[in-house]
Amino acid sequence: MMDHAHDLASVRDATDRLLTAVGKLDNASVTESSRLPGWSRGHVLAHLARNADALVNVLEGRPMYVSGEARDADIERNAPRPLDAQLADVRESAARFQDAGAAPADWSRTVELRNGVTDSASRVPFRRWAEVELHHVDLGIGYELEDLPAEFTERETDFLAARFAGHPDVPPTRLTDGTRAWRTGRDAEAAEVTVTGPPADLLGWLAGRRAGAALTVEGGALPTLPPL
Which of 172, 171, 136 is nearest to 152 (CA)? Predict the structure, then answer.
């Protein structure tokens, strides 16, 4: 089982880093484009707040979102808010998530996320950790993939490699940073392609944050990954 208490503490630390960094912005900066196509920094912050509340719903046995349309509408409505409102919303929703995580619960139970996806409740804090870390990078305010905690980078690489494992459109692929190795893509006795690179670049490629220009590929072209 995942160590949910450890991951909750990691979420708190990551949220504190993000709030400190965002607190140095101004209202104009919040309206500027993020690194996510079509989203301003305000969109990213609004999404982070609503994701925290959505994961509270998951932990408490409710649907994650009322609907996909409602989720998108909430983000669009909240994106233009000034900096102080964005900060307060991220901070307060993060506190609600921590409170839900602190409540006595069976962490081995299965919970339902979006689109019928299920997982162990014990993995929900790690999923939130990934949201906070990767979207901090997406804000484009000086926090890069290379700045992510090493533990997070390794575990998120584990998670994403497993997510694409068995996918019929991804060739059997071996990933390595020179020290550790992962397998992903279609099942096969041997990998067709080996992708090598620094941990941050491997994670960036798997997470759709980098195109893979810094990666070395043997045995074929760099695989095209399906959207997350």
Answer: 136
| 3-class secondary structure, 173 | strand
Distance (Å, rounded) from C-alpha 154 to C-alpha 129?
13
Rounded to the nearest 10 degrees, the angle between the axes of helix 83-102 and helix 124-138 is: 160
Residue type for position 75:
I
Q: Are 44 and 79 in contact (CB under 8 A)?
A: no
Q: Is there a contact between 220 and 171 (Cβ–Cβ < 8 Å)?
A: yes
| 87 within 8 A of 46, measured Cβ to Cβ | no
| Per-residue model confidence as pLDDT tens digits over 131-180 | 999 999 999 999 999 999 999 999 999 999 999 999 999 999 999 999 99
Strand runs (DSSP E) across 57-121, as ranges?
110-112, 118-120
- Asked if 172 contacts 193 with a C-beta cutoff of 8 angstroms, the reply is yes
pLDDT digits 0-9 by tens, 177-225: 999 999 999 999 999 999 999 999 999 999 999 999 999 999 999 999 9
Rounded Cα–Cα distance for residues 60 and 58 (Å): 5
| Contacting residues for 24 by C-beta, under 8 A, at least 6 apart | 141
